[in-house]
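Quick question: what would this complex look like in 3D?
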Amino acid sequence: MSARIDRVEVTTASETGATHRQHQRECEDAVGWSGADGAAVVATVAVADGHSDPRCIRSKLGADFVVAAATALPPELADADELAGALIDTWRRSVDEHLAEHPLDLASVASDADADSASAGSADASDRAEAATLAEAWATNPRIAYGATAVLCRVRADAITVVRVGDGDIIAVGHDGDADRLAAVERQADGATDSISHPDAYELAHSARILADAAPVLLVLATDGFDNAYPNDESMLRAARELAAHRRESGQPIGADVLSTWAREAADVSGDDATVAVVWIETKR
Amino acid sequence: MAEEVQELRSLGGPMARRQLHFIWILDVSGSMRADGKIQALNVAISEALPSLRAAAQGNMSADVLVRAATFSTGAQWHHPEPTPVDEFRWEPVSAGGFTDMGAALRIVADGLQVPPMPERGLAPVLVLVSDGQPTDDFDEGLRRVLDTTWGSRAIRLAIAIGRDADQNVLQTFMGHDSGRHPVLANNPEGIIAAIRWASTAVAPTFRDNSAVGVPGDDDLFYAPDDVSSS
């Protein structure tokens, strides 16, 4: 008899980064999940990180669109590539509809820049150059204004599928206690990241599928605000192992307060928004 | 429950702000004796330290560490240990000798190895200050810097003191496609202003209009056809 995933526990937390707080900016991450559809899907969980890039003035909205798109994906989708494609297609539709109703307005950005530069004493030439850069970027690809990274996992009875676009983290802890990154990509120099807003987003998406027989006990989906708070690549793997051990030993669901404390510390240290979803997975064998 | 939070507070081990290494690379050749240039340089770096500290404080995600190398006939570390910016105190330099800029870049390349550089961190900032032309193999020195992982990621700035400075060499150091250009300082006041400008490089470019700077967090998005890098 083959294994079957029949239950999950999902806990999430999100904290605004210290740098964002310093600049009076909201948290530009998003997290959410949807439960069982009564048939194949046990849960769909998504975490998104809006880019802190001057061109991405609606990145928080873009991150929200990622979560909304992920949690509304049709239940019949199971193939990793199909899931990634549907996520990107749905996100693009949401962005395009919003753009149609709310066109990008360079004048309003310029007004904001004027106010900022007046206090900072910046030169007009700098403002004009920035406005020209924005105009060119938005003319080439208006979706860039909504730029975000995306990680999602879809847990079905028969398998788990994960999708990643950009530098979010997806970590799986197995029954043996080992932790590995799924659909991993090499971090780019200088912290640059891929984006769901990129015209080649389909090619930039990385995915993986794990059958229920090999299902992990724990998945951690996190924005890079966590990983950036640590001195090396191993630390997040260790954190995931510790969370799995804690859940196993306590017999209790991982508390939101535990994750919030962790996220707050990461947001203070990395300066970046820190958002995480932890999925405890129970499989009948 | 309070115990549980305490127990898991150190999930994954200790967290740490990322290091940002700031390295002065200073010309102390004989020509720097003329027109009070070396005195102005010493004053400028001392007076720019508060600006450097203020810029560092504005970058909440970084621990800024400062070093300084000098070059004349040969090169040496003047402040060899990466020192937290709050603890950094400038020891004045004196001038004399040739302009062995390549030698300076070679020792900086050694200083960009891990350690003393961290495995992870923010892009280092290298500031080259010169009033003349290299008297040794500049290209080899620059190649050594760029061959290091951190050197290839570094933000490289240059200050040209006086009209005899080789601006082409300084632009080559900064990168011809970097979008930045050497700052020209023709008098002591200009040197002070230029040094202060370079000190702002440790401030985050978090949606602001800074002329120089490093990312305040890792969310900057560079497409392959990035229009803002041109």
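Answer marked as accepted. The interface with chain A takes residues 1, 4-5, 7-9, 11-18, 58-62, 118-120, 123, 152-153, 204, 206-209, 211, 215-223, 225, 227-228 of chain B (CB under 8 Å).
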